[in-house]
Specification:
The protein is about 20% helix and about 35% strand. It is flat, with a radius of gyration of 23 Å. It is built from three helices and nine strands; from the N terminus they run ββββαβββββαα.
């Protein structure tokens, strides 16, 4: 194991109207880390302001590009962060529609990660392994918090 980062945010950036999709891969393993298709503006009257923010920014010819997100908190409903060592090779693929004239075609990623030291990663993996093993081996019935509190007082 080695030091690296845990990826928690990957936001693609590409220009309308040509951008069709973007993908980010761990090129060392072939794992697809993030795949995004932009949400295309459906159009509104450019003089019709005062509606909701969602409607105000729903302009034809513009894109909204949602990011990929990861979290350690299961309550967030997200997958756990992806670990990338410092020497991980990333591959970005952008698909574009060349029907539209757009000079200066480009794409990039904005990413955020949590720095992980080697010792932190080893400790976390050992802790997760021990928790799983304990949960599988445990045959102790669940005791209510009220009863457990009373048992602590009697000890």
């Amino acid at each position: 194991d080695q030091a690296g980062v845990e990826l928690i945010y990957a936001g693609p950036h590409c220009h309308a109207p040509t951008c069709l999709s973007m993908e980010l891969y761990n090129d060392d393993t072939g794992e697809l880390l993030c795949s995004v298709e932009p949400l295309r503006g459906k159009g509104r009257d450019s003089n019709d302001y005062g509606k909701s923010a969602k409607e105000n920014y729903d302009e034809a010819g513009f894109l909204a590009i949602p990011p990929c997100l990861w979290s350690h908190n299961p309550d967030d409903g997200l997958l756990p962060p992806k670990f990338l060592s410092h020497n991980t090779t990333l591959l970005s693929i952008k698909r574009a529609n060349s029907t539209y004239l757009h000079t200066g075609e480009m794409a990039s990623w904005q990413m955020r990660g949590l720095f992980v030291r080697e010792n932190d990663r080893n400790n976390k993996q050992n802790s997760e392994k021990a928790t799983k093993e304990t949960a599988q081996e445990s045959r102790t019935p669940v005791v209510s918090a009220k009863r457990a509190h009373g048992m602590r007082r009697n000890l």
